[in-house]
Design brief:
The protein is extended. α3 packs across α5 and α11 crosses α14. The longest helix has 40 residues, at 373-412. By secondary structure, the chain is α+β, with helices and mostly antiparallel strands. A hairpin with a 5-residue loop joins β5 and β6 (207-213). The protein has four domains: 3-41; 59-252, no CATH class; 255-294 and 320-358; 441-511, no CATH class. The protein has helices spanning 3-34, 56-77, 79-92, 112-126, 137-151, 257-278, 343-358, 362-366, 373-412, 424-427, 442-454, 460-466, 471-485, 490-510; strands spanning 98-101, 153-160, 174-179, 195-196, 199-201, 207-213, 227-231, 235-239, 282-285, 330-333, 430-433. The strands form four sheets. Strands 4-5-6-7 form a four-stranded antiparallel β-sheet, with no helix packed on it.
């Protein structure tokens, strides 16, 4: 036997053994799958098991850029997606989460003079807080929150003190530079330096630096792949994460994006069909096929006239009477089944499901406010808890950090003098005013809050904050108004107001 024949024989035997081993392993695997206790874990012809796509960072690396691009497309071209972002921003930051100074030592009252000084500086800084001076602080919050929801993450850089080529907009030398997530490359990975998706972390997974493009990669001119390392002490971000150890965020539209695309395509098809249906179409029905192209019959002298042209122009107009039809002809119209009466119901159910995935209420997303008072209030209360969670996260990850940097810059610049024995955290103590939950029935809500205040379940300051107002400013305006009008002090009129409120509550309960 030659060497080639021997080698071929050994190869054939090895291939046969390998196939036999694979077949046996497949049989064992199928037996293990079939023996699973839960029915949902057993694949069948009508049910396929979901595969594991790896860690959260692996999924982000595969899909984050495509999801971000698609979310921006939906915002540009689909009014429903644009409205969803508007609702999230409106109920999370509103016109801007205001910050009221409340400097105090633990267990001590607020230092009113220091609070007034900080509020004056904050009001001035609010008008020009960022490097371009194009946005006030409320607009900055709205842009950061909108980018966070749409793209899955947003970033900003703190700039304190003297910075080359930068002129701060106010007397407090502190400005922020807002950055889109495109500025941090998703494909920058360097295991040797522990860099994952542009974020450099320490051994515990804590971000220590970000590698940022010098120019936006979407710019048509002047962009390069060069990056710079920016410390995590000055560059901060807020991300939409749903798994542990996730470094970059994903858009809130991720789970509802396919449904939005289906609604967009369906509505476009229905609009085209409605346009076609609106163009009324008519036809001429002849008695039988032989009558097409025949002559008009004998004329006055008995000769045959010329056949009727094939393309007669019979224009339709309101109240028209067709008196030039040939013998045996009549006019018919093409019926249309548009608009589709089931389109609104289908769209409503799709938007109801999409609203749950995004985290907004169905009524706000679809602008459909039909329903009873109880149903609307139940929807509002449930969804407002979600908005409150987002607002708290935005405050913790963005506003509170920026407020601390502002106080630090003001102290270092000598604009705020720290009292003896105080720390920076005591000076930076503040109250954050979130967007106010709207009322469905203002009278009932107002009486309920007044009753809670009378029973000492809440304070007047908390009720005032629920209106989105500054309690100190409200108290000052009330005192000024009483001084102008000569009204009695608050304690003199309180029994009268309490009696009126009790009578109104009794009447409402009776009704």
């Amino acid at each position: 036997m030659t060497t080639a024949v021997a080698a071929r024989t050994r190869l054939t035997v090895a291939i046969a053994q390998d196939r036999a081993e694979r077949a046996a392993a497949a049989v064992l695997e199928r037996a293990a799958v079939t023996a699973r206790a839960h029915e949902v874990t057993r694949p069948s012809r009508s049910r396929k098991l979901a595969r594991d796509w790896g860690s959260a960072n692996s999924i982000v690396g595969m899909d984050a850029r495509q999801l971000r691009d698609q979310a921006r497309h939906l915002e540009r071209d689909l009014d429903l997606a644009d409205n969803a972002l508007n609702v999230l921003v409106q109920n999370t930051v509103g016109a801007g989460i205001d910050v009221l100074a409340a400097p105090r030592l633990p267990g001590q009252p607020i230092n009113r003079d220091l609070a007034a000084q900080i509020d004056d500086l904050w009001d001035s800084w609010w008008d020009a807080p960022e490097v371009t001076t194009l946005h006030d602080y409320g607009a900055c919050q709205q842009l950061l929150a909108r980018t966070w929801f749409r793209d899955g993450e947003s970033y900003w850089q703190d700039l304190l003190g003297p910075v080359a080529y930068l002129e701060h907009g106010t007397a407090v030398p502190y400005s922020i530079e807002m950055l889109e997530p495109d500025m941090i490359p998703l494909d920058l990975d360097d295991p040797a330096r522990n860099i994952r998706q542009g974020v450099e972390c320490n051994a515990w997974g804590r971000p220590v630096a970000y590698h940022v493009y010098r120019r936006h990669p979407g710019d048509m001119v002047g962009w390069s792949t060069e990056t710079k390392r920016v410390s995590a002490d000055v560059l901060h971000g807020i991300r939409n994460v749903k798994r542990l150890h996730q470094v970059r965020g994903l858009s809130v539209f991720a789970s509802a994006m396919s449904r939005f695309e289906d609604v967009k395509d369906y509505e476009e098809s229905e609009r085209v069909a409605a346009k076609v249906a609106a163009s009324m179409c008519a036809f001429i029905r002849k008695g039988n096929p032989e009558r097409y192209g025949e002559s008009n019959g004998p004329g006055l002298a008995g000769e045959m006239t010329i056949a009727e042209p094939a393309d007669r122009n019979l224009r339709m107009a309101p109240g028209i009477v067709f008196d030039d039809l040939l013998q045996g002809e009549d006019i018919g119209t093409i019926a249309s089944n548009r608009p589709n009466p089931n389109a609104a119901t289908w769209r409503k159910e799709q938007l109801r499901a999409a609203a749950g995935g995004i985290g907004v209420s169905y009524s706000s997303l679809s602008l459909d406010y039909n329903g009873t008072y109880s149903a609307q209030r139940q929807e509002l209360v449930e969804k407002w808890g979600g908005y409150l969670m987002l607002a708290e996260r935005f405050i913790a990850m963005a506003v509170r950090k920026q407020r601390m940097r502002f106080i630090e810059a003001a102290v270092l610049a000598g604009r705020i003098r720290v009292p003896r024995g105080w720390q920076l955290k005591h000076v930076a103590a503040s109250t954050y005013v979130r967007p106010v939950m709207p009322w469905i029935d203002p009278l009932k809500e107002a009486y309920a809050r007044g009753e809670a205040e009378d029973r000492s379940w809440t304070s007047p300051q908390q009720n005032t904050l629920q209106y989105g107002n500054n309690p100190e400013e409200v108290a000052r305006q009330i005192d000024d108004w009483r001084e102008v009008r000569g009204a009695p002090p608050a304690e003199d009129s309180e029994p009268v107001r309490a009696a009126v409120r009790t009578a109104a509550i009794t009447a409402m309960l009776r009704d």
